[in-house]
Amino acid sequence: MTDPRAQLSPTRFPGANGEWARFDGPAGTQMVDVAIRAASEWSAGGNNANTHGAFAQAHATDALLERARVVVGQLLDADPRGVCFGANMTTMTFALTRAIARTLQPGDRVVGTQLDHDANVSPWRIACEESGAEHVLAPFSIPDGRLDMKALADLITPNTKWVAVTGASNLIGTMPDLRAVIALARHVGARVFVDAVHLVPHMPVSVRQLGCDVLATSPYKWYGPHAGVMCIEPNLLNALPVAKVRPADDVGPRRFETGTPNLETSPQPKPLPDSCWKKAWKTLQPTNAKCLLHYLRVCSPCRTCRCGARPRLKRARPPWRLPCAARLPRKLRTPWLQRRSPCGMAAHMQLKLFHDSVSPTPAESCAQVWCAMYRTTTWHDS
What we know:
Layout: H1 4-7, E1 21-22, H2 33-44, H3 56-76, E2 83-86, H4 89-101, E3 109-113, H5 122-131, E4 134-138, H6 149-155, E5 160-166, H7 178-187, E6 191-195, H8 207-210, E7 214-217, E8 228-232, H9 234-239, H10 271-274, H11 281-299, E9 306-307, E10 324-327, H12 335-340, E11 342-343, E12 345-346, H13 352-358, E13 367-369, H14 377-380
Parallel strand pairs: 1-11, 3-4, 3-5, 5-6, 6-7
Antiparallel strand pairs: 2-8, 7-8, 9-10, 10-13, 12-13
């Protein structure tokens, strides 16, 4: 087989070619060429039709959606009968928690964490406000950024109905022990929601092995289109009192996918695994680590720079120490950076609870640095 590093060379990401160095991966990656072609070819191929029609093109669209569910199921080791597509993780989580709110009542509890992106906090908070349930958040250890498992265990009481946890922090990359979290929830009969948006781009994920009830991810964080994916345990999916129009399916993913799906993104999941990026994880890790560490060495002489990637965190992060949050004043511009026109993300990346706990500076003073597959050593050594 061809070396996966060659199959995923930077030239396969048209949007990453140019003068700008793209370190804005946490907000979205550049699409790989096969995904771009898949969308274009489907739109121009004559099968562009809505679902459930009584003609060949509509049948082709139905088949396309089913194939996409199977491929995503294979990628995440999830049951394709529970693979749902939507606008993005945030929108889908709000839709899910609106349905869950109808099953909650006063006295129930939902447990979240302060490490989470607000897309896995506010939807649950609002659901609890509307239902009268209690919403509590487990803290993290400020010295090392890890989830406080003892505090989490104390918060997961017999009246806990849901535990919502991140797979990897969007801001600092801390990876909670998901198996331990899920075990705590199962001990009291609670269900588990995993925000894997920042986990899936960095390592293999198995929904079946984790045993969570819901796992959400975003294809545009792993070189695909702007869309959301939510894997919901099929029995739970069919039982949730989701908001939908009466003619919509009563069973399966289409009961959760309100209205016409974004069909332009549906052809793209299949070529993503076929492009070998999943097989290239291990071979690309050293390259990404070298790129990231080089960036941190350049920034380290600046006294105003505080970097989130610290050696003592390596066991709780992806092994190549990604992602990294480097808190830099917005006005910081070194000659090295100016020559390379970097694209990073300023602000707190919607991790308000985390940022407010660790930083006395305004949220907009944070700059996030993240090395994607198209960021190679060629750039930073020049």
